[in-house]
Amino acid sequence: xxxxxxxAAIWASVFVAIKYAVPETGPLWLAxxxxxxxxxxxxxxxxxxxxxxxxxxxVWVLIVAMTLFNIVIPFFLISWAEQTLAAGVTxxxxxxxxxxxxxxxxxxxxxxxxxGPKLVAVxxxxxxxxLVVGLDALGGVAHGNLKAxxxxxxxxxxxxxxxxxxxxxxxxxxxxxxxxxTIGAIILVAAALAIxxxxxxxxxxxxxxxxxxxxxxxxxxxxxxxxHLIRTVGYSTxxxxxxxxxxxxxxxxxxxxxEPLHPQVLIxxxxxxxxxxxxxxxxxxxx
Length: 287
Prior knowledge:
This protein has helices at 2-49, 57-81, 87-94, 97-108, 116-143, 146-166, 173-195, 205-233, 235-239, 244-257, 263-279. The chain is mostly helical. Helix 1 (2-49) packs across helix 10 (244-257), helix 4 runs parallel beside helix 6 and helix 5 packs antiparallel against helix 11 (263-279).
């Protein structure tokens, strides 16, 4: 539970950081720089532990596919979407992931099936999201930038696909994180150079700090947590932590931006945390 809360808090910080950096770098270079920093952060530890590369072709196919769905596609899409989307609207769209994860895990895995507690947990979590963002944000979904909303939604669904692939890759979490981030960095840097060309100016101090923090925490460190949690608790249970992202996002707004803390946020937090506990309840076998 503590690791789930920690991962959600780290990922929530990325939305604030993107707002600082994306106007100066653009979404493609932002994703490329973020992933390159993340790979560099993990490199010393991964090399010290010994980077033993997989030998089977199928493992490499799964790793590359997972990298595309877990890093390349969502990092670009969410950064692109946040050029126009508000944080609350993005939170709603990202909160759709657990529903898809619940269905995907049920049909595509043998040990992560839908149960009554898991279904209740998803409903509690999504109810918390609605409370956090409020009806005004729901109205924003109806009247906002449709392309940006579709991009954020596709980014969320991309993580679901990646989560199902991760469980099929038998590579230790740190090694897998480093390999995936390295592959992702190569793809994104090449794409940024080909499409946007080299960066013509250094980002400002605030944007540079945002990029550095994104690379170290939500990208480098958090991805080790992600791979570890998906394997230990299953993707559908891990996905409930996604529901905590808007809650932590609100608290970060209160701390960093002086935004007011409304009572419904505390109620939402209680709903979501309850859902996380309920998700871990094992149904009794009936003989």
